[in-house]
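Saturday, quiet lab. Running sequence design on the structure tokens for the scaffold JK sent over.
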């Protein structure tokens, strides 16, 4: 039997410091250090994020190795997020991974964060169970920084077929929440209050955008004007209607997302449909996607909550597949703030 492959994955692209151990595709640990420091600023402050990563990275990696039950000397390779993300945040993870690889004389594997979100579907649990989509499949990747429809032809073969031309879906959630006076990140709170509200209480327009692309900036503006107008007539409007407003905002965002996803499925004749990224934790979106199985004959794939928002498990699994293909990076690799989902950097074999 061939030797098992053990990957240490590192994620530091935004405000979560995370480390994970994956052995032959099975997850042994996935530790996430959240940064509370941004809450009072209503959004991620890049400089504070980098500093917090520096503080968190060693304890988080230590914890991930400890929880996995493996010994540090057994790690086959270290995978890290190269981009896209905040440069200062990425640099902490990149520098750590390079040093770790050098010190332990193991290969270094750079990972595209957006590919990681998608390949989270291929993580197996400790017992080796998983439910991955079959190729080719479509993935709606919805996070705080991205909204994309990606055609996944094979494990490391990605084709971007649609994306937002302005705000991301997560931003639409967070900025709407801010208008309602909710703390950052507001997405999960809108989700929570929406459960108690009427999704058709208020209506907001659906933007007209070309092809399979999205736009969310118009929605944000129409919510802003709506809230202003209503609050002028009734200063307690938000407090009295919070649940209905949240349900209506969520309903609008989901309608926008689903409309183009349906179009993408029709145009490509692909009915294997997955969602990924932080917004895929949204209960309304998860429910709507599941309903599409019956109404549209789709096979749908929804990641467990722990793999939706940023985590190193998704980075480790992507690095694992690159390891199997001998795709390693050298010590000159650096962070990249902007990076298309198709990008797999130039690699060379280790040793
Ligand atoms: O993937 P992610 O953790 O980080 C990025 O790469 O951006 O996504 C974070 C985004 C935030 O905008 C957050 O509000 C949103 O995901 N989010 C949600 C929910 N959970 C996280 N949005 C709506 N409903 C949720 N339950
Ligand atoms: Zn992300």
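Result came back. Writing it out in full:
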């Amino acid at each position: 039997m061939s030797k098992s492959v053990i990957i240490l994955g590192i994620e530091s692209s935004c405000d979560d410091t995370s480390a994970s151990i994956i052995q032959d595709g099975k997850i042994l640990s996935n530790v996430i250090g959240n940064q509370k420091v941004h809450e009072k600023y209503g959004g991620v402050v890049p400089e504070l994020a980098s500093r917090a990563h520096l503080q968190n990275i060693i304890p988080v990696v230590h914890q991930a190795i400890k929880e996995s039950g493996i010994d540090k000397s057994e790690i086959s390779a270290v995978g890290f997020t190269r981009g896209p993300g905040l440069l200062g945040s990425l640099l902490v993870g990149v520098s750590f991974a390079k040093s770790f690889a050098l010190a332990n004389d193991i290969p270094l594997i750079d990972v595209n964060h957006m590919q990681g979100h998608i390949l989270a579907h291929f993580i197996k649990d400790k017992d080796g169970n998983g439910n991955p989509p079959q190729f080719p499949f479509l993935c709606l990747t919805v996070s705080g920084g991205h909204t994309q429809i990606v055609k996944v032809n094979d494990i490391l073969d990605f084709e971007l077929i649609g994306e937002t031309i302005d705000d991301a879906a997560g931003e639409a959630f967070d900025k709407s929440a801010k208008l309602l006076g909710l703390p950052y990140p507001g997405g999960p709170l809108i989700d929570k209050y929406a459960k108690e509200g009427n999704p058709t209480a208020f209506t907001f327009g659906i933007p007209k955008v070309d092809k399979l692309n999205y736009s969310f900036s118009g929605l944000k503006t129409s919510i802003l004007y709506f809230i202003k107008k209503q609050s002028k007539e009734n200063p307690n409007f938000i407090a009295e209607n919070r649940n209905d407003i949240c349900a209506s905002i969520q309903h609008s965002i989901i309608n926008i997302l689903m409309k183009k996803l349906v179009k993408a499925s029709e145009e490509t004749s692909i009915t294997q449909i997955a969602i990924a990224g932080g917004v895929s934790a949204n209960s309304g979106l998860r429910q709507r996607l599941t309903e599409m199985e019956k109404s549209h004959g789709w096979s749908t794939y929804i990641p467990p909550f722990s793999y939706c928002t940023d985590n190193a498990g998704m980075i480790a699994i992507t690095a694992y597949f690159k390891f199997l293909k001998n795709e390693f990076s050298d010590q000159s690799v650096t962070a990249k703030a902007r990076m298309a989902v198709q990008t797999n950097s130039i690699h060379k074999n280790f040793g």
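Notes for JK: Residues 145 and 218 are 17 Å apart (CA to CA). The mean pLDDT is 95. Ask whether to fix the surface positions before the next round.
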